[in-house]
Amino acid sequence: MILALAIFCFAATAVQFISIAIAIARLRRNLRPPPAGQSSAISPNPPISLVRPLCGIDNYADDTLTSTFALDYPDYEILFCVATANDPVVPLVETLIERNKSVNATLLIGDERVSSNPKLNNVLKGWRAAKHDWIVIADSNVLMPRDYLTRLLGSWQADTGLVASPPIGCRPQSFWAEIECAFLNTYQARWQYIVDFFGNGFAQGKTMLWRRADLEASGGIEALAKEVAEDAAATKIVRDAGHKVRLVDRPFAQPLGYRSAAEVWNRQVRWARLRRASFFAYFLPEVLSGGIWPMLSFAFVAGALGLPVAPSVIGFGALWYGGEMLLAASAAWHFTALFPLYGLTRDLLLPVLFVSALRGNGFVWRGNAMEVERMQPQRMMALMRPRMREFAEDSRMRFRSLRLRASQAISPTRRMLSQPMRRSLRLRRRR
Fold first, then answer.
1. Helix ranges, 118-218 (H)
2. Could you report how far apart the first and last alpha carbons of the chain are, in Å?
3. CA 176, CA 280: separation in Å to the nearest integer?
4. CB under 8 Å to 293, separation ≥6 — which residues?
5. Residue 32 has pLDDT above 50, yes or no
6. Residue 238, Cα to own-chain centre: how many angstroms?
7. Tens of pLDDT along 259-304?
8. Which helix (H) or strand (E) holds 413?
9. What interhelical angle do 309-331 and 292-304 show, nearest 10?
């Protein structure tokens, strides 16, 4: 048992630091994004329609919505969408539109129900009213930098069907907001970029760049109603069309402000149940994620070897969460000296979160009660097998490519080292 725990601890630690190294390399790959339209798959500076569904007033709503008007891009329109005219965000949007008359912005009000997803119902009118072929759907709480559209277009490649961005937490103003940062940044965003590294990126509803023709060919905006979450449906639609979901090189921030324990927990449960319902094969490994199981294993191994358990576990935890702090620092994400405490709290919640995702199907989003599909193990396994085979084959191809590159890099060194050895053998023979 001690040997098994030692092997698990070593493997988990290796995965932790390899994933951090890959994420750092991926996030630093393009520190200077190319000018808009420099991708060979896109004409220079195509006009873009920016659709922002709104519901209520989020923390920092003035900042996030104002950022929509300050984008450094030559030709784009803004379509704000709300379901009802009495939504409290309407006066703020009307003020911003009046204040920024030089920007083409429109407020659309109405609620056409095509699904159980209120966000998709809200987006529908914006998609239909969009004038341009390139359409960005962005949540109201995304803080857009000036090069927002440029960076999205810069990530589009010839085989791309959608460009998305995971949310990155910033400006936390409470203990539980710090916990949410630990969830969003060095945990969830990191693993999204790892999966993207292996060519199996997932859409994230916070930001999605579409080419209208691609979605229309798959049934139009209404096709996103096939899943409870529109981003899960988007991922499957893009993959079924033979394209890939790409993640933007540097993700966009979401200012958090104050968060209560209930807000953070309910949000994480909602996301976990959506992952379980839509991508069960990717959800299952979450039972072993986080630092709690490796730390417990390390404690048993340290005790068996006669090492002081408490100092050993503290040192292991410092190493584990220090790696995540290195990732946050490298990506310029929010973190503080108390991050190990926040990361540990997050990881203590992960097993409970996993069980909660398995045991329940319902959740509430912005006052709307919703429900995911109930557990059907046989059907889930049948759906998992093709995805697992596809992922395994893609992983084998990538590892073969890496091994080939490594051998090509090592071969010149071997030749250089072998030349003195050959000379030495010739001298010995002559002697």
1. 118-129, 148-154, 175-183, 190-197, 212-217
2. 57
3. 28
4. 8, 12
5. no
6. 16
7. 999 999 999 999 999 888 888 888 999 999 999 999 999 999 999 9
8. helix 377-430
9. 150
Say how far residue 228 (Cα) sits from the centre of its chain. Answer: 18
Is the distance from CB of 141 to CB of 64 less than 8 angstroms?
yes
Integer Cα distance of 291 and 142 in angstroms: 29
| 410-429 burial code (b ≥16 CB/10 A, e <16) | eeeeeeeeeeeeeeeeeeee
Residue in this structure with the two tokens 């004038």, named with its chain if needed: 131
Q: From CA 61, how far away is CA 51, in angstroms rounded?
A: 16
The pLDDT tens digits for 350-383 are: 999 999 999 877 666 566 666 666 655 555 555 5
Distance (Å, whole) CA 117 – CA 280: 20
List the domains of the chain with CATH numbers. Answer: 1-32+180-195+261-397 (no CATH), 37-167+204-259 (3.90.550.10)
Is the Cβ–Cβ distance between 227 and 233 less than 8 Å?
yes
Candidates 153, 121, 157; CA nearest to 50 is 153
- Please, what is the Cα angle at 327 between 300 and 182, to 5 degrees? 70
Query: Distance between alpha carbon 99 and the CA centroid of its chain, in Å?
Result: 34
